[in-house]
Amino acid sequence: MPEPSVASSRRAGLPALAAASVLGVLAVLDWVSPYATYPALAIACIVISLALASHGLRQAWRGPRQRASDAKRAAESRRLRAEIEARRDLDVRLQADLDNLYLRLAQQQDVIAVIAHEMRTPLSTIEAARQALESLADEAGADQVQRLRRIRRAVGRLATLAENLQSAHRLEYSSYGLDLSQVALGPFLYEILLSLGLEERVTLMCPATAVVRGDAGLLDILFTNLVSNAVKYGGDDSVTIVLTATPTHAIVHVTDGGPGVPEPEIQRIFERFYRGGDTRGQSGAGLGLYVARRIAEVHGGTLKAKNRHEGGLALKVSLPLALTRGAG
Q1: Contact at 8 Å (CB) between 215 and 299?
Q2: Is the pLDDT at 48 greater than 80, yes or no?
Q3: Contact 151/126 with Cβ under 8 angstroms?
Q4: Could you tell me the residue ranges of all domains in the chain?
Q5: Class at the top of the CATH hierarchy for domain 180-327
Q6: What is the pTM of this model?
Q7: Which one, out of 72, 175, 242, 252, has a CA that is 20 to 30 A from the CA of 183?
């Protein structure tokens, strides 16, 4: 049985206290006048009876209310415990679902990376065969030359897709270590234009010398993606690359004369697999700008986009300098 509370003990002691008080009064009266004892005893009995009756009534009145209050609190406590248990079970199930989702995403990305890697060998074989056929272009007819150009463009698109898929996987799902070296951006950007065959059609201006410390392979992917994107949507004759520098950062602006990007989509173009509504039937997987921004970020830099007032899109890359810049 539960122990009585302090309040209930006090209530139970009230009749005893009343009786003790009356007996004390009787003792005083007996000492003062023996004749006063009998009327006082009658009065004392009446007082004790009234005290006992009052106490019993109070207990009878408070008992059901107290029991109802206790039952209500017990029911509320059980409800709260049940709700806490239900929420704990829900948290466990949600965490298990999230872990399973992350595992499946990682497995999916691993499969994509493997496919992208396996694409490189046949693409290299096709490109080597195309170059061999192109070397015989003087003996080939116009139709064959046109076919070779289409093969070159298709191989280039597939090779870029494979490179971006692998880069996205390395940057997002693995602890990719940077192979750091000193990179002089002026000559580096010109080499990229040479590799793309755009050195005579894309304007490159380098009013400043800027050297950064970075992974040359990843930086090549970053700027190749930016230039390719600008050429795809703006036309190679309208693309301009300008290299400048602040005391702490190298700044590369890549601008084109295309239609630009609708303002509501200007930040979404850096999302993985996002392609805007106005792609005009252009090929692509929506990975180039996402990969470019991630590469800039792992180098401690930024990549931002804005529409130009005169038309077209401006992409701005900012990378920390490795050396103090010098005018050039």
Answers
A1: yes
A2: no
A3: yes
A4: 1-176, 180-327
A5: alpha beta
A6: 0.56
A7: 175
